[in-house]
Amino acid sequence: MEQKYEEEIQMLQQEIEMLEAEQEETLRTIFIKHGDRLQEELKSVCEERGGGGAHKRALSKLHTEVRELEKDLRRQTEINGIALNECFVKTLHKSERKLVQQLRLAGHCSVLLFQVEFAVTEIQEDDALLRRVTELNIVVDGVEFKDFSAFVSRMEDTKDLLLFFRTLRTFSERCEERRQTFQHFQAPGD
Amino acid sequence: MDSQMEPMEHGVLNHLMALERGGMRPQDQHQFERLEMLKVKALTLRAKRDQLKHQTDAIKILKDKISKDLPLQDDDNAGGLIEMQQSLLTAWKMQLKDLQRAHHLIGGYDLVECKEGKSVCVAFHTAFEGVYLDTYNMELDLTRTVQISRHNIPPSLPLESFAKQNLQKDLKAFLRTLSQNLNALAGRRQQVSLVKELVGSVEVMESNQLCNILVLMCTEQGETPKAVLCTLEYGDLTQCLPTRVSIESEDKTISESPQWKKNQSLLLESPAHTALLTMRRMGSIA
C-alpha cells in the first residue's frame, strides 16, 4: 500500500520536472522569436485591470520582479562595459550534479560588435562547482587589425572566454581614446 | 519545517493527534501516520502536476497564436487574459535571468547594491584556458569617498597601491586592473598545477605565492640523462607568460644547443605545461 503511493510520488515528481523543463523551453522560444512584439503587447495589455485579487497580486509581483531584473541588468551592462542585445540559452543536459548549456550572445562593446557562441559544462562536486568552457566561436565586427583576428583565433583554441572579453574591453577603450585624440588634433573644418 | 507544510498537511497532523489521544497501538499509529503523509504528498503533487500541465498547455496555445500572428487578447475569456499576461511576464523574466547569467559567465563583476546603495559588492571571476578558477569578492563603501570595506584578495597583490591609483577617480579602471592581475595570478598558479598534473617527469623546484618565479627541473633525454634547470621569471604581473627564461645545466653543450634555444622560445611563448608537453613529445625531455 505504502509502495503504491511511493511509486506514484516518484512518477509525479518526474512528470513535474519534465513539465517545468518543457515550460521553460517554450517560454524561451517564445521570447527569442517574438520578444520585441511581446513587450509591446505587454505594455498595452497591462494598462487594463482584470481578474481577481490573487491574480492581480501575482501579476504585480511578476511586474516588480521584471522591473528589478531590468534595473539590475542596466547596472551590469554599465559596470561591465558590455551590452548584450541577444541571448539564447539552450540546456543540453540537466541533472542533479551536471549542467551543460549552449549560449549564443550578440552585443557590443562601445563600437565593437561581437557574436559569441559557447558551450559550458558545470559539475557539482562535494564542495566545489567545476565549470569549464568546452566550445567557443567568436565573430567581431568593426576591427580591421590582422593581429586582432590572430588573437581571436587563439582565444577560440584556448577557450579563453573571459580573456576575450577583458581584452575586447581594453581594446575598445584604446580605440575610443585614439579616436578622441585624433578628433582633438583635427583642424576645425576638416 | 513547519513553514513548508501545506494547509492539508496541517489538517492531517491535527487528525493524527486526535487519534493518538484516542489510543491507537504505537506500531499501528506509525504505519497510519506514514500512510496518511504519503497520501497527502501524492495529492499535493498530483494537484501541482495538473496545474503545471494546464499552464504548459496554455503557453503552447499562446506560442501558436503568436506564430500565426493572431491577436493575443481573447475578449470573451478574461481569465485567459490574466494567464496570458502571467505567461508573457514569466517569459520576459526568464530572458532577463538568462542575460544575468550570461554577464556572469563572461566574467562580469556581478555588481550588487547593498545597504540601500551605501555600498556595493563586486566579484572578480578568474579563468584560464576555459577552466573557471577562484572568484574573489570585495565590498566597496560609497558613503563619502570610495573605500574598500571587505575583501578576500590575496595579500601578495598590491591592493593598496591599486586603490591609491584609481579607486577614487576611475572605478572601472580600478576593477579592470584588479581583474587583470587576479586572472594573471590564477593563470600562473593553474599552470603550476597543470605542470605537476600532466608532466610528472618535470619537478617544480621553486614557486611562490605570487607565482612570479618558477623553477623547473627537466631531464634531458640521452645516453646519460642530464638535469636541466629552467627558470621562468614573470616580470609583468598582468601576464600569464614569462618575461625571461634561463636554461642551466651542468653540461654546457646542452644549454647552448639549438634544441634548447628552441625550448627556451617555447617556454617564453606558450604556457608552461603546453611548452613542456611539446618538449616531451619532441623527445627533448623525459
TrEMBL record, chain A:
Superkingdom classification of source: Eukaryota
Sorted UniProt keywords: Coiled coil
Coiled coil: 2-29
Keyword Coiled coil: yes
Keyword hit for Coiled coil: yes
GO CC field: chromosome, centromeric region; nucleus
InterPro entries: CENP-P
UniProt record, GO biological process: CENP-A containing chromatin assembly
Pfam families, per the entry: CENP-P
Protein name, entry field: Centromere protein P
Originating organism: Phoxinus phoxinus (Eurasian minnow)
Top-level taxonomy: Eukaryota, Metazoa, Chordata, Craniata, Vertebrata
Automatic annotation (TrEMBL), chain B:
Pfam families: CENP-O
Chief location category: nucleus
The keyword Coiled coil is annotated on this UniProt entry: yes
GO CC term, one of those recorded: Mis6-Sim4 complex
Protein's cellular compartments: Chromosome, Centromere; Nucleus
Keyword Acetylation assigned: no
Signal peptide: none
Keyword line: Centromere, Chromosome, Coiled coil, Nucleus
Chain coiled-coil ranges: 35-65
Listed InterPro entries: CENP-O
Family: Belongs to the CENP-O/MCM21 family.
Name of this chain's protein: Centromere protein O
